[in-house]
Amino acid sequence: MNVSGEYRRPFRLGTALVFAATCLLASDAWATKSYYIDEMTNYQNGTSCDIATVNTITSSLQTQLNSDGWSGSRYTEYSAWPQDFWESCSTTYGTDGDDSIFGDNHVLTVFAGHGNSHLLAFSNTGNGGTYGGSKTCLTNLTNNSRLGDMSGAQAGFGMWLACDVIQSSELGTNMYQSLRQQAGWQNTISIGDDEPLDFYNATGSQTNANAWLNQMSSGGRNAIIATFSSNNVTDCWSVHNSAQLKNDVYNSARNNGATCGGGQPAYYYCYQWRSN
User: CA dihedral defined by 156, 83, 152, 29, rounded to 10 degrees?
Assistant: First the structure.
């Protein structure tokens, strides 16, 4: 299903459904290809963060990215912190945010582990940062993150390899990022060891949207991929139907997000979802 809408500041919030054909624009290719990956598998540390253990799914993805000339880092288990995706330029988003070094300092930013609606769950509280005065095992994409803008401002594609993180009903309210695209699921799912790799490889011949939906919607999984534009709905669908990670097409942040301490500018979003 194809759906689009618009976010404006709260006093002018509006959403519209659009089913128009797409007009393709020239590709926006960037020479620098970089990635950042946090992956949790072992959540059994005897702390309040404990939940079920999961399988490793990003190791083969990192190997292929490196082979294709990407550069970056992959942190696992206790070396991966919630603060890696927290905005670093303001204590509004939590103390000791590190996104300008980690999650928002690379074109492709990836989390693998447990999740919930607009939440990424870690197996530890990281570097001692707090939100609301307390340590937390979570990154809340609404309260803690401004990926693609403020400090860092390099992230363009957010791959959330966890249950429930992206909800279509929240794209105009709780996903205030300046990422060009975000991909995930709207339900509880399992992920095969090499599926992120298979998705990435498929973007050599398919758009990110088609590759994600084709690879990640099997077995009743409600796969969703959303695209964001600072301009209009037509531009949103143009990027949505053109972007390719492996071919370095539209691998960049939108670069029209909030400045440090600033409010969220208007943005447009469009998305597709599929459940087989």
Answer: -20
Cα–chain center distance at 154? 12
- By the 8 A CB rule, do 109 and 65 touch? no
Nearest to 194 by CA among 68, 76, 71, 64: 64
Q: Where are the beta strands (DSSP E) in 92-244?
A: 108-112, 114-116, 119-121, 130-131, 134-135, 138-140, 157-161, 181-185, 222-229
Global pTM reads 0.90
- Residue 258: both structure tokens together: 């909030």
Domain boundaries, the chain: 2-20+31-275
Quote the tokens at residue 209. 């949207």
pLDDT averages per 10-residue partition of the chain, 276 residues: 58 26 32 89 90 97 98 97 96 96 97 97 95 96 94 96 97 88 98 98 98 98 97 96 97 84 87 97
Asked if residue 260 lies in contact with residue 150, where contact means CB atoms within 8 angstroms, the answer is yes
- Helix 195-202 to helix 59-67 angle, to the nearest 10 degrees? 30
Does the domain made of 2-20+31-275 have the CATH classification 3.40.50?
yes
